[in-house]
């Protein structure tokens, strides 16, 4: 097993790991307080990301993004729909398809919990210049790509 030399790079990698753990715990607290499974939270995040990107999200696409089979995706969506967090609607581009949309109440619920963390993160980032922000974006994008296996 190749050893990575201790240094500032490894210190940053360990800090990133600690941040990922804390964010996971924060997300789990949100799920617990709102009677959700952690996968429910991941689904809502995927739906909000798709909406922000202007992309339509089908059940199949959501299931693939979350690593769920068809039955698991259906159970997830049924659960989220019963809770009022999502709704199934006819696709805008292809009316034969069913798209999944996140309900505004779910967005508001998420913002009430995650908003302070998001606002603090944005505040921290405002302390960096454009070159530093580009480096941060490049690093995080590269780590994300490495974590997904380059997908």
Would you mind describing this structure in some detail?
This protein has 151 residues and is mostly helical. It has six helices and two strands; from the N terminus they run ααααββαα. The radius of gyration is 18 Å and the shape is globular. The mean pLDDT is 92.
Strand content: 5-15%
- Anisotropy-based shape: globular
Spatial sequence of strands, sheet with the most strands: 1-2
Question: How do the SSEs run, as a string of H and E?
Answer: HHHHEEHH
- Report the major sheet: 2 strands, antiparallel
Q: What is Rg?
A: 18 Å
Number of strands: 2
Identify low-pLDDT runs: none
Mean pLDDT: 92
Class inferred from helices and paired strands? mainly alpha
Helix segment tally: 6
Helix content: 55-70%
CA(first)-CA(last) distance:
25 Å
Describe how the helices and strands are arranged.
Elements: H1 8-33, H2 38-52, H3 59-66, H4 70-82, E1 86-90, E2 98-102, H5 104-125, H6 130-147
Antiparallel strand pairs: 1-2
